[in-house]
Specification:
Radius of gyration of chain B: 24 Å
CATH architecture of the largest domain in chain B: Orthogonal Bundle
Structural class of chain A: alpha+beta
Largest interface: A-B, 28 and 23 residues
CATH topology of the largest domain in chain B: MetI-like fold
CATH superfamily of the largest domain in chain A: P-loop containing nucleotide triphosphate hydrolases
Mean pLDDT of chain B: 85
Number of domains of chain B: 2
CATH topology of the largest domain in chain A: Rossmann fold
Number of helices of chain A: 8
Oligomer: heterodimer
Shape of chain B: globular
Number of strands of chain B: 0
Number of strands of chain A: 20
């Protein structure tokens, strides 16, 4: 379909002192994508972003931007621009001067600077504040300055380092929609770094989940959620019940396995599996019943905890063999509530196809 | 419920207690009475300058017409200006070096750099005198025409002024957000452009404060100047000293008042610029 704009090939970054922040990472990012690098703090996602921008040089591998290997090109010679976590708006310049800075230093004619700065400010709705200084602006406004300042350069790739982390909840939602809108309008590839799974899931077209310097999985948000490849991804994206299981044998694309605390069953698995696997089930895929259901997978337990969240209740059920299952119950009638109480004996069941067999 | 406290009785309301107010007044009197007297008597009509006889500006005119006093003042100002320029550039570069780079023995170097601040002035004076005499610089400079014959004094002043500039600029740079520098390069600026359009503007308050500090220090320095000046060159503080030995005249009062005013203005400006900016969230 579309062309690759950024191709990261076997990139490694080892810092002096023995810390390998990024370990042999390969990702292809396509034109016009809204791509997210997601992971816990210290997973190497920011280092990877900084290597794409040129602020950090890799100790191995290639970073191909627009068909050219730029792994060792300085940041001022790259077609990428960055929105920094601290915004890094120049405090001694007005909004206009800030936005025009990148054009001025590269020798763009002054009337063209004026025109493009005007356009950029309009795009982020800051035209009225053009002559303000950054210390007279709110965090959200400063972020828009940082955005306009990067976009005015018409980069091939816009890099955003935790762009929403410093904003309050309400502003964060607005900015999230704004970023998606901007990305669609300008048609530039966005690469965003975030530790917030909701941010990544709701904005990105594709996500790379990173852990300890390595990429765990690159997929669309829905794929990551419903078909995680590893225990780490299943656990990091959303909530999950991980049930240990022992494999007896493999029959074609199915495995005959014994789930701890649940029982023996056959589950679909694409992977060639080992003897010991984990079965992941999302809490909202579990159902509860007060009498024994007819479903293939069912387990009886005691309600240990009920946490009320308004729209849903999170119920923790303790079954045999120390197995704890989290179930999300929709509170879909006003007077019914979740219908369960602590200490109550209850049945939990789910469809076999909602089970994900994980080997690593 | 606890008894209500009247305003001024709270544990931290020291400022409104009478005994403390009296103490403050006494301290300020001891500190400033001599200076106020000096300034007041610069407007006195009495020749001997001991008894107040009436208001006049004659002393200022006389001081202005006293060629040797004016020569000394000109020397002092020229020395202070040139020394300030060199001390500021040198101090700023030192501060940048300390802030930006890592190198072996950095800590030791940082300590040695601040030495001129703590060394007793008399030792600095003697050391510089010996240096100038033994290196032959003294004889070299003294033979040159004005203002080059001030070279050794300027040299000495730069030596003790630049560490002050370095300390002030360095403390300013501590608050610099390195992402500003990265953002500048990311937006296409070279190292040089980044230095001049991002780092220098950020250092500016520190540079001005440091420069004013250096200027005041140089302007009223007596000890080091006394040791390092040639026989023919006289600076303002040295001149005042030699005049006072022959008795205080209101002329000196007038000239000193001018010096005080210059120094106070420079110091106030320096303090203003050194104060942390309000609501500096960047």
């Amino acid at each position: 379909m579309s062309d690759t704009i950024v191709s990261i090939r076997n990139v490694t970054k080892a810092f002096p002192g023995g810390v390998t922040a990024v370990d042999n990472v390969s990702i292809d990012i396509e034109q016009n994508e809204f791509f997210a690098l997601l992971g816990p703090s210290g997973c190497g996602k920011t280092t990877l972003l900084r290597m794409i921008s040129g602020l950090e040089t890799p100790t191995g591998g290639q970073i191909i931007i627009g068909g050219e290997d730029m792994a060792y090109t300085p940041p001022n010679k790259r077609p990428t621009n960055m929105v920094f976590q601290s915004y890094a708006v120049f405090p001694h310049m007005t909004v206009e001067q800030n936005v025009g800075y990148g054009l001025k230093v590269t020798g763009v004619a002054s009337d063209e600077i004026r025109r493009r700065v005007g356009e950029a400010l309009e795009m982020v709705k800051l035209t009225a504040l053009a002559t303000r200084k950054p210390d007279q602006m709110s965090g959200g406004q400063r972020q828009r300055v940082a955005l306009a300042r990067a976009l005015v350069k018409r980069p091939k790739v816009l890099l955003l380092d935790e762009p929403l982390s410093a904003l309050d909840a309400k502003l964060r939602d607005d900015m999230r929609m704004e970023l998606t809108r901007l990305q669609e309008t300008v048609g530039i590839t966005f690469i965003i770094v975030t530790h917030d799974q909701d941010e990544a899931l709701s904005m990105a077209s594709r996500i790379a989940v990173m852990d300890r310097g390595a990429v765990q999985q690159v997929a669309t948000p829905a794929e990551l959620y419903e078909q995680p490849k590893t225990r780490f991804v299943a656990d990091f994206i959303g909530k999950v019940n991980l049930i240990e299981a022992r494999v007896h044998r493999q029959i074609g694309r199915k495995v005959d396995c014994e789930l701890k605390g649940v029982g023996r069953m056959e589950l679909v698995s694409d992977n060639l599996v080992g003897a010991q696997v984990s079965v992941a089930v999302r809490p909202e895929k579990l159902k509860i019943a007060s009498s024994e259901p007819t479903a293939a997978i069912r387990v009886q337990g005691k309600v240990r905890d009920v946490a009320y969240y308004g729209d849903t209740s999170h119920v923790v059920i303790e079954a045999a063999d120390g197995l704890n299952l989290s179930v999300n119950v929709q509170n879909d009638t006003r007077l019914g509530g979740s219908g369960v109480e602590r200490g109550q004996s209850i049945w939990v069941y789910w469809a076999p196809e909602d089970s994900i067999v994980l080997t690593e | 419920m606890a008894a209500q406290l009247k305003p001024g009785q709270g544990p931290l309301d020291y400022g409104s207690r009478t005994w403390l107010k009296v103490l403050f007044a006494a301290i300020f009197f001891v500190l400033y009475a001599p200076i106020i007297t000096l300034v007041a008597f610069s407007f006195n009509t009495d020749k001997r300058g001991v008894v107040w006889r009436g208001f006049t500006l004659d002393n200022y005119t006389k001081a202005w017409n006293n060629a040797s006093l004016i020569e000394a003042l000109t020397n002092s100002l020229v020395i202070a200006l040139i020394a300030t320029v060199f001390a500021t550039v040198l101090g700023a570069l030192t501060a940048l070096l300390m802030w930006r780079f890592r190198f072996p023995f950095k800590g030791a170097y940082e300590g040695f750099m601040a030495l001129p601040i703590v060394i007793p002035e008399i030792c600095m004076g003697v050391a510089l005198l010996l240096f100038f005499v033994n290196s032959g610089m003294m004889g070299l400079f003294v033979a040159l025409p004005w203002p080059l014959n001030l070279g050794n004094i300027i040299f000495a002043h730069v030596t003790f002024c630049f560490p002050f500039v370095a300390v002030v600029v360095r403390s300013r740079l501590v608050g610099f957000n390195r992402q500003l520098e990265e953002a500048s390069k990311d937006l296409g600026a070279s190292e040089w452009q980044t230095f001049w359009s991002i780092i220098v503007p950020y250092m500016k308050p520190g540079l001005i404060a440091g420069a004013l500090l250096a200027f005041t220090l140089s302007l009223d320095d007596f000890v080091i100047t006394f040791f390092t000046s040639g026989p023919e060159t006289v600076t303002f503080p040295v001149k005042v000293y030699s005049l006072v030995r022959r008795g205080v005249s209101p002329e000196i009062n007038a000239a000193s008042t001018v010096l005080i005013v210059i120094t106070v203005i420079a110091t106030v400006l320096a303090m203003k610029l050194q104060a942390p900016p309000k609501a500096d969230k960047v």
